[in-house]
Write a structure and sequence with these properties.
Length: about 130
């Protein structure tokens, strides 16, 4: 028999009241109901789904950020070199390094070079079947 798990869900971050629920819940406020679809279980965790674009998030705060900054919003930051657009300044900063810096991560198995270590590891895993050492 499966054990019931308890999840803590804060429906209103500005309010200090937190409720304990035994299973996923639906926002009870009519304003929230239109924004937040019912939560559902995924690998034992609550997920929150955007009703506009169907993207899912593990935290309600991430869904709220998505609604405020991402979903249906035009990007605010533009690269002055290639004129690409970005929604977050840190993404523009990371992108900008491609234009001004030499790649510092080289693949030992092929001539490919990368600006970020995580991209090199992803490349080695995908193309060369090499798992990163921990």
């Amino acid at each position: 028999m499966r054990e019931k798990r308890s999840y803590w869900l804060q429906l209103y971050p500005k309010n200090e009241n937190t409720i304990e629920v035994q299973q996923p819940v639906l926002a009870t406020n009519s304003r929230n109901r239109s924004i937040f679809q019912s939560s559902r279980m995924t690998r034992g965790q609550l997920t929150y789904k955007c009703t506009n674009c169907n993207r899912s998030y593990m935290r309600m705060s991430c869904l709220k950020r998505h609604l405020r900054v991402e979903c249906g919003q035009a990007p605010k930051y533009q690269c002055k070199i290639c004129h690409g657009w970005f929604k977050y300044k840190h993404n523009l900063t990371a992108h900008w390094k491609m234009h001004v810096e030499e790649p510092k991560y080289n693949c030992d198995l092929c001539p490919k070079k990368f600006y970020r270590r995580d991209r090199l590891l992803e490349h080695q895993k995908r193309l060369h079947n090499i798992l990163p050492m921990l």
